[in-house]
Amino acid sequence: xxxxxxxxxxxxxxxxxxxxxHFLFAKRAGILVREFAIGMGxxxxxxxxxxxxxxxRLLPIGGYxxxxxEDMDTIHIQAGHxxxxxxxxxxxxxxxxxxxxxxxxxxxxxxxxEADLEKELWIKGYDEEEKxxxxxxxRDAVVxxxxxxxxxxxxxxxxxxxxxxxxxxxxxxxxxFNFILAFLIFTALGMMQGIPTFEPVITEVTEESPAAEAGxxxxxxVTSIEGDAIATWDELVESVQNNAGNPLAFExxxxxxxxxxxITPEVAEQSAEEVGVIGxxxxxxxxxxxxxxxxxxAERTIFxxxxxxxxxxxxxxxxxxxxxxxxxxxxxxxxxxVAKYGFFTLMSWAGMLSINLGIMNLLPLxxxxxxxxxxxxxxxxxxxxxxxxxxxxxxxxxxxxxxxxMLVVTWNDIQKYFF
Length: 419
Prior knowledge:
- Helix content is about 40%, strand content about 30%.
- By secondary structure, it is an alpha+beta fold.
- Among the domains are: about 80-155, no CATH class; about 200-285, Roll (Pdz3 Domain), CATH 2.30.42.
């Protein structure tokens, strides 16, 4: 149960921040956001605030921000349609009823002659006395059809009406907020847990190891090897690994007293290479530093950003296969293992996942944010947008291929973890 809760909280937070990025920049661009959804599939909970419906949906596998002008969102009234209109105090249409199921007093019926509900906002038609009328429509008018209401979206509030730059930032903001979330997580880790100092302090000396035989003890601080100053644990490891079988002169501090040891690293195999080891274990000391926590958050974010790109490169070059990829099942099982090591480790895992989600969405693949961004770049270079039908077809094919990949990865995860 703890794993389920951890998975839902982590995945929910990643999706929320991603979609909040889209939402916030859409609002700043003046785009009407119809729905902010966490999860996919059937709606569990829905709350309307202002012009946006906020929903929680059944399947915790994603989310979306539905903006006006996308996905056949535009409202059209054809000539010959019989509609009902409610007017506000200024005489503007505040509600347009397509199929009247509710009873409204003072409703005006029109047989539509023509209408413009995007740019000039008017409806022209014949009333019950067959008198031709033109009625201006309020910018915040509501259209009701079969009991369902939808806010009218003038063209200047639709996604496609905005400049390439504003559309680009609205889409790019999703992955950007995943990177921001990772930075905040790692910064919070630095504040709560402390920042690793990476000092070359020996945490534990293994029994019957070269270090133990030489007299090294837990808590010794290594200051130099062969006369070269040692400031970090990585420098210690590098010096030892590069001198397998060669005696090394160690200078250490123990309770403030300097000591000298001569230790010969044993030969060990690591990643198909022979390296030197002296038999010591390490756990970095932690220090609390409020301002340093921000630098630590940035350093960890950049580290994982580079690491995930490195792994992607290995996938592209065939250094590991698709079997190494994980879907929701694999992420769940890994979360289960990570949770065993405590809250801080779980937070670090969430930060890494957030960066991974941001990078995956930036890949220039159809249907992903990166694919949409590529079309915006092409539009900026050409000076005109790509044909919407062609772009839609590319994204549709991309969605089908991504769903196929998800099925393959999920099936591999099921076989790996359950069979």
